[in-house]
Specification:
By secondary structure, this protein is α/β, with parallel strands linked by helices. It has 2 domains: 66-288, Rossmann fold; 291-410, NAD(P)-binding Rossmann-like Domain (Rossmann fold, 3-Layer(aba) Sandwich), CATH 3.40.50. Helix content is 32%, strand content 21%. The strands form 3 sheets. A 7-stranded mixed β-sheet has the order 6-5-4-7-8-11-10. Strands 14-13-12-15-16-17 form a 6-stranded mixed β-sheet, with helices on one face. The protein is globular. It holds the Pfam family Methyltransf_23. Residues 246-405 form the C-methyltransferase domain. InterPro entries: Methyltransf_Zn-bd_dom_put (IPR013630), Methyltransf_Zn-bd_dom_put_sf (IPR038576), MeTrfase_14 (IPR013691), SAM-dependent_MTases_sf (IPR029063).
Amino acid sequence: MTKAQCRFCKTDLKHSFVDLGMSPLSNSYLKAEQLNQSEKFYPLHTYVCSKCLLIQLEEFESPDHIFSDYAYFSSYSNSWLKHCQQYTNLMIEKFSLSQSSQVIEIASNDGYLLQYFHNQQIPVLGIEPAVNVAKVAIAKGINTTVKFFGVATAQELVSQAQQADLLLGNNVLAHVPDINDFVAGMQIALKPDGVITMEFPHLLQLINQNQFDTIYHEHFSYLSLIAVSQIFAAHDLTIFDVEELPTHGGSLRIYAKHHDNHQLTISDRLIALQEKEKDAGLDQVQTYLKFSEQVIASKHKLLSFLIDIKRSGKTIVGYGAPAKGNTLLNYCGIRGDFLDYTCDRSPHKQGLFLPGTHIPIYAPEQIQVTKPDYVLILPWNLKEEIQEQLAYIRQWDGKFIVPIPEVEVLE
């Protein structure tokens, strides 16, 4: 058997980070007629590279298969839209963006973010590989190209005299199997004095907050500032600033520039976060080898908790049908014998079934019909928003459960 190699530095991968067993693609939702058909399951086993310390999965399915028809639409979270509107205002002010600027977003989804730049008459271009999602953005008037991003797409943009003053990507850097081609493409697509911002879940939070459910096949990499800095530097890009954000359970927003752009200087925030990661041991392989123990312990605690509830005759339903929820449910073996159903605001998921577990997905109104005793919040990063939306369950003494970082009941 050929050894897997690091997707960045090509070192053989020898060290396991965590093995979550076999799992289906987490956004491969099923129709009723597919329930009796076979499903593909793939190893969900992450490794740490001993040289560059990039955490990663092996590639089992192509990006074309995973992303060309995608179930995730970004516009169904109010708190996320608010975050994007605040980002837009910050970027316009911070970098003096105007009607003569060009904003390009990679993996622009349904226009959830670019709409805010567009509303302020700033030229935008979205690059989105999922045809079904891009159609929604185009219908909003967002200029969108249906392509995967990399060197070839970047060169095409340059040939059309399109380079970015602001080149951005939210929760996409972890989704690319060929991270070298992706970052090299950004270097090409960025104007000489332009700025890149990328947001992604922070590996330090994944470890500290036990966020193992954010591991799924659509996420090829799990990113620290240490690893990302090396990748960008290899492609003549310098990270000069960083922000720690609360989104997605704790994310980073990095700011990058061309190496030879001396107008933008290294921030104190960047230096402080570099030290924070080193203090946490993220510069040592041994730190990563301990993670699987806490994941196994969390699985046992969650299952024991749910078993006790079911033995007492209580009912449990889920809220949300996120990719992270599918990792959690499949790894822990939580199926219809635990959850009667789950709900999701996205009409694109309603009427379908979760991959692997085959739990049905309804509209949120189903909760008012069945009045469950407990609601398990699968997108735990949105727990405050969901508690507010479902505050009415307290009318029948309903309670919320969050599974991460540890199982907890919210009164």
